[in-house]
UniProtKB/TrEMBL annotation:
GO molecular function per UniProt: fatty acyl-CoA hydrolase activity
Organism the protein comes from: Flavobacterium psychrolimnae
Listed CDD domains: 4HBT
Top-rank taxon, per record: Bacteria
Record-linked InterPro entries: 4-hydroxybenzoyl-CoA_TE (IPR050563), HotDog_dom_sf (IPR029069)
Name by which UniProt lists this protein: Thioesterase
Length: 145
């Protein structure tokens, strides 16, 4: 597998007054896809709650290249671009590609795992999180931190 991919379906409410996808909708699509991927990798909400940890973001950035309209066919590809060996810190990239395989936008997030009881960064990284995130497809320029 080269990436986790998802075809997006846009709603009227995803548009801004200029009739293209509003900036905050990109972030919503990225967040939803990350949660779906974690679920797919066994990190369900039930598991996260029972083991008292979850993902936390330090940075989220979107670079817009080409507008996306309501009827456009867009596939979002998600990969990991950076990670510490213990999977305690990581960066994930979402690429929004159109039917012509042109890059429309890129979201990059930097994150870690939070202990939800202590409200601090999980130390050590939960084993189940390490196993899951190591199964993420990696970017061509993947960097081990």
């Amino acid at each position: 597998m080269t990436s986790f991919s998802k075809e997006l379906s846009f709603r009227w409410s995803d548009l801004d007054p200029n009739f293209h996808v509003r900036h905050s909708a990109y972030y919503d699509f990225g967040a939803q896809h990350r949660i779906e991927i974690l679920e797919n990798l066994g990190l369900t909400m039930k598991v996260l709650r029972s083991q008292n940890f979850g993902p936390i973001l330090f940075r989220e950035e979107c670079v817009f290249r080409k507008e996306i309209l309501l009827s456009d066919k867009i596939v979002m590809h998600t990969k990991i671009s950076k990670m510490r060996p213990d999977a305690s810190r990581w960066s994930i990239v979402h690429e929004f590609m159109n039917d012509d395989n042109k890059l429309c936008a890129t979201i990059t997030v930097d994150g870690a795992w939070m202990d939800t009881k202590l409200r601090k960064i999980a130390d050590p990284t939960p084993e189940i999180a390490m196993d899951a995130i190591r199964n993420f497809p990696k970017t061509n320029d993947f960097l081990e931190l």
